[in-house]
């Protein structure tokens, strides 16, 4: 009887996650872990060395202090150029991404071929490293801010269009239906029901990309595309670490300010 | 006048939404369609302004077969049919007035509307409509600041602004509590009577249907199983529409609604 | 800032790994890491040092690992932390490394039979610039401010010649404008395209551009050269004991007699020999840097 | 007929002033930007037409001979980026929780969390590389660490945003059950955030694969080094090949990760 | 037994959710609370398991004043009170079984539960509960694959798994259509009778309340305005609860519900 009872009880108490799903999750977990172990081996990871060497980092890090904040005036022109490049690039990318992200959202663009084509192009755009873009455009346009701006535009366009098309895909479709039902044209429908819904996200993504663009100019500086990056690189090469730290702190301040503006704008329009 | 002649609709996945529906809805009528979830009420109503396209038969609105309509014709058709939805379908983040003005989009050319340039007539009309549903003081509130009943009134105002010949309402009160539901139904009825707008409403509740309708159409599994004035509704009608008496159905817990 | 290298020597002891006091030479390390920063001053850039490292390892009987890095500040810091023991670093980087971490030069590379090279002033052939004095009021393109041949030497030369206080003054008072072009090639192209009037680059950057710009040899001429700049160094960290350093030196020198190695070095780095070098040879770089040192800081 | 127009919206004076200030600020920013930056478009265009044939055709004529070399670098990059972004994906979790307002109720802590993340993001790759090279030497591991830190700045920020948009009803339901905080985390929060966290981690992995210039600095080889060298040598054919390899590899990663996500979510 | 003694609740923003409520709910009762939106139904119910904390008075559950409870005591209190929500509050991405097992969390030690290690008894109990609401065949489906009615049944199963002494249900049927609503109410009633679990349900619909309740409590603006058996409900009760007779209210469109 007891035997019977237990059997019954067990039969009645199914596993929390079905065996098949469990196996699948375990398999994926093992693959990820396995690849990590392999990567650790290939990259010569060693916790001991890390702990041993940590002191070195401390010693080096100290050299960055005290940061020289008096350099603000000296670097201002380059910083201004960086900001200006980021402003232009972000603005243009934000404008261009509107049609692109609508075309790359499957709830607005119902034509499968068009949608897939735009997605494909955007994916390729996103794949190209910013450094390569900068190098190619410098080679094409010569040194100066323009190649940097164009590299930033393409770079941010990829990110923005992806993020925004995903937002568009998640909007409430009901108002669109209502507008269609009242005879509004497609453009009217988009303008009156899609735009208000994505506006807050749009702004915060644009500001996020603006921040990325400011930071990306560090890379751009290295290839002659202007901006604060050049100065930073030079300070490091000359061992003016406190100066480098000063620049980093100024970039940090800029990042925090942008983030603050972003929250404020979101609060204002949400 | 709206005429369904042997209208059938099969969804791409094979579900039959409508099965050989024949109906005539006359000018100025207030028709309520009742039926269980999945009976095809929405499909029927949405066929009329071609939000879905019946696959067979003929559907005439004002003596034109709208099943052949395309692009421009469709837009014109839709401007004369107003629609009210269960979830109000307002743009939550826009203010009430903008939402109501959206009802005029079909009558406005695209470019000016993009710059929010509506004519004084349009704006006056929109304001007038808001007043008719007694919600004018919320004109500049954002839609998501309103309660459900208020939102539905805004969506009625939007439809009024459209100056339609027909109003379709797809379960306009399903998300509202009973007093508010009655309020909304009362407004719909009032507009039907004052403006002589032919009105077709979907409802789950047969009791509410009987209170407001000139005529009740019962649907079940894509077919019209009852069609007649509210006064003719009997216990048997209930059975026809709901398959069996309500109580019994419920007690068979296992079944899905 | 640190003064002379002697002072640096005593100062660095505290910086280094405590276990290896300088006096008691430790036994041979298990592995030596050799770092290499290809500078654009050379006209081909290699992305591997493996053959060289292997050969050196054989000769020393210790495992030698070669690493190519793209930034010499990183290499110098790695040498400072004794993570890299042998560094192939340009003259200017050596001077800094010596000052900071007491890194010592043992050898230098020979190119085209010489242990030095020069930087050049590149101008358009059809321009009216005939002497350095004509450069006044013109636009100057240089690769970047940390480039030995592209910036330091020409800047020092011009400052000396025209009696300017600082690099800042050079860029704003003497020249109309200074542009950091990001590379020797970009600087030359800036002149070619008319964005700048003069570029300072290594000698001769035009050869690397001939493929893309076939007429560059005619369009651009060389206005002049700077004084000699010592070639890339082979430097070692102070933690290596003298015996090992001698071995390393000998091993490298032996490559000079090894046909196969010469070929490798030539193919990959354009070197045709390695020769001994002394710290004093780099004084010229040091002096040059001293002239500019303060004008580069930002305060 | 006289038209009855609606009353004008009443806007608070504060908001009006605020909006005007914002508008002026934005206009000023643009005026400053466009007057400050000098670009000769006509000339740049001209230049591009001239240079086009020097570069673009070569990019489309990749130098396949370099494939073994580029491929090796790519594989190396993959290992490093994988290890780096996995570490980042894990260590970003506590930071994400710290910076999320609805998880860390204490405003001071949240702000500290957000600032830490911003500070990390302000650190340029090259400095991270230098810092880690002195820790473990010029080897791929230094690259792994630098990438891990660099990625934490972005992942932590994204994670905290996911957490802030969490459906809190479920948490309430579990609270009503008598579940404790850890249990709510395990059964209510983690299932909700896993898909987004995964997507972002994979997205970051892709970024790390294609933007690994940092690896060149630490002497870890990698695709970034090759980009730098191809640039220095003006070797456009090799640049073309590098691009092809990156595009193909990232596309494959994208495909695999979509499959994995589908299976896990 | 649950006793409210002069319980008031003022929200931080000053809204009065409850005003001097006095109530006693006995073991095994099936109580339905009705009232308009904003009447304070949710506030009342959520006070009982302290999801909100009344600011005044005494609230006794099993003769202990729960308003003084903290941490550990609160968790223990909550394990014996099950709760059902309008929006089901299931973890959409977890499967049904995991969702139901979540009902046991309060009875399970933390560490094992983090690794989904539930005892055989717990798993058997959860499965049993699923069977009681006839949804066992969906055990490994993800919660978001289910219809509303099914999800609500899962959430009932979750509460059953908790083996509570009390069940609170906050508008459990507001998102469901009438037949499904009846189904869900029937299950709740069945459980109340079979397991003798004291059950308190919030509803908008007084008619539905009358069908299922032993006792009806009417609320209005934070006050209890009616308390008695369903049989005692009259036209006047309606008026008390809804402010005035329904019809009249509606016609005065301007008023908010
Ligand atoms: N887009 C669609 N694709 C496939 N089948 C659909 C689609 N829309 C509806 N259906 C199916 O068609 C039938 C009728 O649906 P319809 O929405 O018209 O019912 P309803 O009476 O409005 O129900 P409810 O009360 O739930 O709104 C149902 O079986 C439904 O599942
Ligand atoms: N967290 C809160 N903060 C401030 N006020 C609140 C809060 N929750 C509810 N209220 C207010 O308290 C009052 C009672 O709300 P409660 O949610 O209890 O009503 P209800 O009867 O459940 O209504 P409904 O039918 O809409 O759920 C309402 O005026 C409501 O606006
Ligand atoms: Mg429907
Ligand atoms: Mg409530």
From TrEMBL, chain A:
InterPro entries: MetI-like, MetI-like_sf, PhnE/PtxC. Gene3D superfamilies: MetI-like (1.10.3720.10). One of its GO terms (cellular component) is plasma membrane. Belongs to the binding-protein-dependent transport system permease family. It is found in: Cell membrane. This is Phosphonate transport system permease protein. It is a multi-pass membrane protein. Keywords: Cell membrane, Membrane, Transmembrane, Transmembrane helix, Transport. It comes from the Bacteria. The keyword Transmembrane applies. Residues 79-262 form the ABC transmembrane type-1 domain. GO terms for molecular function: ABC-type phosphonate transporter activity. SUPFAM superfamilies: MetI-like.
TrEMBL record, chains B, E:
InterPro entries: AAA+_ATPase, ABC_transporter-like_ATP-bd, ABC_transporter-like_CS, ABC_transpr_PhnC, MetN_ABC_transporter-like, P-loop_NTPase. Signal peptide: none annotated. It comes from the Bacteria. Keywords: ATP-binding, Cell membrane, Membrane, Nucleotide-binding, Phosphonate transport, Translocase, Transport. GO terms for cellular component: membrane. Pfam families: ABC_tran (PF00005). One of its GO terms (molecular function) is ATP binding. Residues 2-246 form the ABC transporter domain. NCBIfam families: ABC_phnC. This is Phosphonate transport system ATP-binding protein. It comes from Litchfieldia salsa. The lineage of its organism: Bacteria, Bacillati, Bacillota, Bacilli, Bacillales.
From TrEMBL, chain D:
Pfam families: BPD_transp_1. The chain crosses the membrane at residues 20-39, 78-100, 214-233, 239-257. Gene3D superfamilies: MetI-like. It is a multi-pass membrane protein. It is found in: Cell envelope; Cell membrane; Membrane. Keywords: Membrane, Transmembrane, Transmembrane helix, Transport. This is Phosphonate transport system permease protein. It comes from Litchfieldia salsa. The lineage of its organism: Bacteria, Bacillati, Bacillota, Bacilli, Bacillales.
């Amino acid at each position: 009887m007891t035997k019977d009872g237990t059997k019954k009880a067990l039969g009645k108490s199914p596993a929390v996650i079905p065996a098949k799903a469990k196996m699948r999750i375990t398999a994926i977990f093992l693959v990820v872990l396995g690849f990590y172990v392999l990567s650790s081996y290939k990259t010569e990871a060693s916790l001991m060395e890390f702990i041993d060497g940590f002191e070195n980092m401390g010693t080096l890090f100290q050299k960055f202090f005290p940061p020289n904040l008096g350099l603000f005036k000296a670097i201002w022109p380059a910083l201004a150029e960086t900001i200006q490049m980021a402003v232009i690039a972000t603005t243009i990318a934000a404008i261009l991404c509107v049609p692109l992200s609508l075309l790359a959202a499957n709830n607005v663009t119902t034509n499968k071929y068009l949608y897939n084509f735009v997605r494909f192009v955007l994916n390729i755009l996103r794949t190209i490293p910013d450094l390569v873009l900068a190098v190619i455009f410098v080679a094409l346009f010569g040194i100066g801010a323009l190649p940097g701006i164009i590299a930033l535009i393409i770079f941010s366009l990829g990110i923005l269009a992806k993020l925004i098309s995903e937002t568009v895909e998640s909007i409430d479709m009901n108002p669109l239906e209502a507008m269609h039902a009242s005879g509004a044209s497609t453009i009217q429908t988009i303008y009156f029901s899609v735009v208000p819904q994505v506006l807050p996200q749009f702004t915060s993504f644009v500001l996020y990309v603006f921040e990325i663009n400011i930071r990306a100019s560090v890379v751009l500086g290295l290839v002659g595309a202007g901006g604060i990056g050049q100065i930073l690189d030079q300070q490091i090469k000359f061992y003016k670490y406190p100066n480098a730290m000063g620049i980093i702190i100024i970039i940090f301040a800029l990042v925090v300010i942008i983030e603050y503006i972003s929250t404020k704008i979101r609060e204002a329009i949400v | 006048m709206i005429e369904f002649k042997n209208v059938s609709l099969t969804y791409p996945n094979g579900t039959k939404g409508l099965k050989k529906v024949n109906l005539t809805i006359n000018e100025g009528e207030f028709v309520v369609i009742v039926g269980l979830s999945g009976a095809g009420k929405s499909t029927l109503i949405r066929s009329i302004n071609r939000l879905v396209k019946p696959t067979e038969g003929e559907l005439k609105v004002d003596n034109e077969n709208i099943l052949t309509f395309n692009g421009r014709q469709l837009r014109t058709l839709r401007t004369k049919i107003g629609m009210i939805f269960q979830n109000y379908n307002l743009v939550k983040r826009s203010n009430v007035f903008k939402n109501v003005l959206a009802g005029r989009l079909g009558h406005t050319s695209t470019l000016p509307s993009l710059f929010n340039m509506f004519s004084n007539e349009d704006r006056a009309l929109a304001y007038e409509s808001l007043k008719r549903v007694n919600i004018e003081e919320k004109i500049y509130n954002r839609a998501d600041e309103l309660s459900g009943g208020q939102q539905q009134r805004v969506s009625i105002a939007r439809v009024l602004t459209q100056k339609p010949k027909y109003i379709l309402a797809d379960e306009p009160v399903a998300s509202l509590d009973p007093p508010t539901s009655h309020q909304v139904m009362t407004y719909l009825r009032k507009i039907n009577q004052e403006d002589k707008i032919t009105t077709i409403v979907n409802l789950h509740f047969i009791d509410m249907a009987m209170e407001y309708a000139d005529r009740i159409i019962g649907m079940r599994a894509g077919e019209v199983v009852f069609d007649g004035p509210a006064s003719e509704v009997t216990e048997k009608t209930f059975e026809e529409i709901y398959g069996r008496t309500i109580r019994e159905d419920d007690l068979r817990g296992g079944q899905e609604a | 800032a640190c003064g002379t290298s002697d002072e640096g020597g005593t100062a660095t002891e505290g910086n280094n790994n405590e276990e290896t006091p300088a006096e008691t030479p430790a036994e041979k390390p298990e592995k030596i890491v050799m770092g290499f920063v290809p500078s654009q001053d050379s006209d081909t850039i290699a992305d591997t040092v493996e053959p060289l490292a292997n050969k050196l390892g054989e000769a020393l009987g210790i495992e030698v690992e070669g690493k190519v890095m793209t930034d010499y500040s990183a290499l110098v810091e790695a040498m400072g932390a004794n993570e890299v023991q042998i560094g192939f670093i340009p003259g200017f980087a050596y001077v800094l490394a010596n000052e900071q971490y007491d890194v010592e030069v043992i050898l230098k590379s020979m190119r085209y039979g010489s242990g030095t090279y020069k930087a050049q002033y590149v101008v358009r052939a059809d321009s009216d610039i005939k002497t350095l004095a004509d450069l006044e009021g013109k636009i100057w393109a240089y690769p970047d401010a940390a480039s030995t041949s592209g910036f330091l030497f020409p800047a020092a030369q011009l400052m000396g010649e025209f009696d300017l206080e600082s690099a800042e003054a050079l860029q704003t008072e003497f020249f109309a404008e200074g542009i950091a072009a990001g590379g020797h090639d970009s600087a030359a192209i800036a002149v070619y395209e008319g964005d700048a009037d003069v570029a300072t680059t290594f000698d001769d950057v035009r050869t690397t551009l001939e493929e893309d710009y076939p007429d560059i040899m005619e369009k651009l001429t060389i206005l002049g050269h700077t004084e000699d700049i010592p070639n890339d160094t082979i430097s070692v960290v102070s933690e290596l004991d003298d015996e090992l350093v001698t071995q390393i030196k000998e091993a490298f020198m032996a490559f000079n007699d090894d046909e196969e190695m010469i070929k490798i070095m030539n193919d990959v780095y354009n070197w045709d020999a390695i020769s001994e070098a002394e710290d004093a040879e780099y004084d010229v770089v040091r002096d040059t840097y001293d002239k500019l040192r303060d004008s580069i800081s930002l305060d | 007929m006289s038209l009855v127009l609606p009353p004008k919206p009443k806007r608070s004076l504060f908001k009006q002033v605020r909006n005007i200030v914002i508008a002026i600020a934005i206009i000023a920013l643009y005026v400053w930007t466009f007057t400050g930056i000098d670009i000769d478009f006509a000339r740049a265009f001209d230049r591009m037409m001239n240079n086009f044939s020097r570069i673009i055709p070569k990019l489309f004529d990749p130098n396949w001979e370099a494939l073994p070399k580029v491929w090796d670098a790519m594989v190396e990059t993959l290992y490093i980026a994988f290890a780096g972004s996995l570490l980042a994906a894990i260590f970003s979790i506590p930071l994400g929780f710290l910076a999320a307002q609805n998880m860390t109720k204490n405003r001071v802590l949240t702000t500290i969390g957000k600032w830490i993340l911003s500070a990390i993001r302000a650190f340029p790759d090259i400095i991270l590389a230098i810092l880690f090279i002195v820790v473990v030497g010029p080897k791929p591991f230094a690259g792994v660490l630098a990438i891990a830190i660099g990625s934490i700045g972005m992942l932590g920020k994204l994670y905290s945003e996911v957490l802030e948009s969490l459906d809190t009803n479920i948490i309430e339901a579990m609270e009503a059950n008598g579940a404790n905080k850890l249990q709510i985390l395990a059964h209510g929060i983690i299932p909700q955030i896993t898909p987004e966290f995964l997507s972002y981690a994979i997205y970051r992995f892709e970024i790390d694969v294609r933007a690994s210039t940092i690896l060149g600095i630490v002497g870890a080889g990698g695709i970034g080094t090759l980009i730098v060298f191809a640039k220095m040598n003006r070797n456009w054919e090799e640049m073309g090949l590098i691009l092809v390899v990156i595009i193909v590899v990232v596309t494959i990663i994208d495909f695999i990760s979509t499959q994995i996500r589908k299976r896990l979510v």
